[in-house]
């Protein structure tokens, strides 16, 4: 690491506990956040793209899901806090430097999310111009996702930081569009896949309640998942070749990564097969497994790149009494239990058809 890059790294604060535990907690909380984010953005994308679908069940289910979207934003933002805090504990030196380089773009995330949040409430409350408002909210959230993706790529490539010195302006694509764009498209396809499963899952819940005509929504939702999952193969290959030679070598020579890639390949094949057989809930389980596996690959790559840089410069960890760790874990479990309970209440409420649905069912 050159002296120029070292100048960007602030003082390394001690880690308040075993790094392995913090990595595990970061993995769990980020996976949960990513699943919610994919469901939110994916449902929004489907609502905008399939608003005029020829199938009434698709249109009705997407319209009835609108009141859930603001709640989805709130849950997604709240679940983003724990992994962000764990990231700062383990890799704060790199995260802070990357965020400072992005400066205006990074600070703009709060404004973008708040505007999208208000837009979703507005779209749920009024019918005139609803699709236009949804489109604006979707663009705001996609821009937010792009900024976060650029930040993650910047944090993972500290060798490009000195390129910022001549400009000293807010940099969004300092890591290079060739790295950020495939990484963003990879996330976008994941959103589309999970969004399709949300549509299929809602239609399945209504079908189980005896509401007829849900088959087109189930079929289209599973088709979105299937096509987006297959698209991940091409975009994932593009993303791999956008990495540095050292990062590519790590991914190709590490046994743990090989095992995860095997699980990814098998999971993708199983997910496509289950979607073709219209096994909705089994496909949902496979999708959650795929997201968790991708998060694990991401974490191992980040650990390889950043831990190697700060090896030997980290101060010793603080000694944490076991009671503190136990209290923290109990609090985390209680939080997830509360979120799960709230999600069940929402699913139960919004699986009930709207006032227009029974009339349409009778006419069908």
Search tags:
mainly alpha, 13 helices, globular
What does this 3D model show about the protein?
The protein has one domain (16-311, 332-351): Formate dehydrogenase/DMSO reductase fold. It has 364 residues and is mainly alpha-helical. The N and C termini lie far apart (68 Å). 79% of the residues lie in helices and 0% in strands. It contains 13 helices and no strands. The chain has helices at 3-6, 19-49, 56-64, 68-102, 104-125, 130-155, 177-208, 215-242, 245-253, 255-276, 280-310, 322-350, 356-363. Helix 2 runs antiparallel to helix 6, helix 2 packs across helix 7 (177-208) and helix 2 crosses helix 11. The radius of gyration is 22 Å and the shape is globular.
Question: In short, what is this structure?
Answer:
This protein is mainly α and 364 residues long. The protein has helices at 3-6, 19-49, 56-64, 68-102, 104-125, 130-155, 177-208, 215-242, 245-253, 255-276, 280-310, 322-350, 356-363.
Q: Would you spell out the secondary-structure blueprint of this structure?
A:
Blueprint: H1 3-6, H2 19-49, H3 56-64, H4 68-102, H5 104-125, H6 130-155, H7 177-208, H8 215-242, H9 245-253, H10 255-276, H11 280-310, H12 322-350, H13 356-363
Helix pairs in contact: 2-4, 2-6, 2-7, 2-11, 4-5, 4-6, 5-6, 6-7, 7-8, 7-11, 8-10, 10-11
Average predicted local confidence, pLDDT: 85
Q: Can you name the CATH architecture?
A: Up-down Bundle
- End-to-end distance, in Å? 68 Å
What shape does the CA trace take? globular
Helical residues, percent: over 70%
Count of DSSP strands? 0
Q: Helix/strand-derived class?
A: mainly alpha
Q: Which strand-content bin applies to the residues? A: under 5%
Work out the count of structural domains. 1
């Amino acid at each position: 690491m050159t002296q120029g890059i070292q100048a960007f790294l602030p003082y390394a604060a001690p880690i308040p506990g075993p790094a392995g535990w913090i990595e595990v907690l970061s993995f769990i909380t980020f996976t949960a956040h990513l699943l919610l984010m994919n469901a939110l953005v994916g449902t929004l994308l489907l609502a905008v793209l399939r608003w005029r679908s020829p199938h009434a069940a698709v249109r009705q289910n997407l319209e009835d899901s609108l009141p859930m979207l603001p709640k989805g934003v709130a849950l997604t933002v709240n679940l983003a806090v724990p992994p962000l805090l764990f990231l700062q504990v383990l890799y704060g030196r790199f995260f802070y430097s990357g965020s400072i380089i992005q400066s205006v773009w990074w600070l703009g995330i709060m404004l973008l999310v708040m505007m999208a949040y208000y837009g979703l409430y507005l779209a749920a409350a009024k019918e005139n111009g609803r699709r236009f408002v949804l489109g604006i909210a979707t663009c705001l959230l996609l821009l937010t996702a792009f900024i976060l993706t650029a930040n993650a790529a910047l944090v993972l490539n500290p060798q490009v930081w000195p390129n910022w010195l001549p400009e000293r302006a807010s940099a969004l694509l300092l890591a290079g569009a060739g790295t950020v764009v495939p990484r963003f498209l990879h996330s976008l396809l994941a959103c589309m896949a999970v969004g399709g499963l949300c549509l299929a899952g809602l239609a399945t819940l209504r079908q189980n309640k005896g509401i007829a005509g849900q088959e087109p929504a189930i079929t289209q939702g599973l088709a979105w998942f299937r096509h987006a999952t297959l698209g991940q193969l091409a975009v994932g290959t593009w993303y791999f070749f956008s990495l540095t030679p050292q990062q590519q070598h790590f991914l190709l020579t590490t046994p743990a990564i090989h095992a995860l890639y095997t699980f990814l390949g098998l999971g993708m094949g199983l997910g496509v097969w289950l979607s073709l057989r219209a096994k909705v809930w089994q496909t949902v389980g496979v999708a959650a497994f795929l997201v968790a596996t991708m998060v694990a690959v991401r974490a191992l790559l980040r650990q390889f790149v950043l831990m190697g840089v700060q090896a030997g410069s980290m101060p010793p960890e603080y000694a944490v009494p076991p009671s503190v760790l136990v209290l923290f874990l109990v609090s985390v479990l209680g939080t997830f239990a509360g979120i799960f309970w709230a999600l069940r209440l929402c699913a139960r409420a919004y699986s009930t058809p709207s006032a227009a649905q029974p009339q349409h069912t009778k006419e069908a």
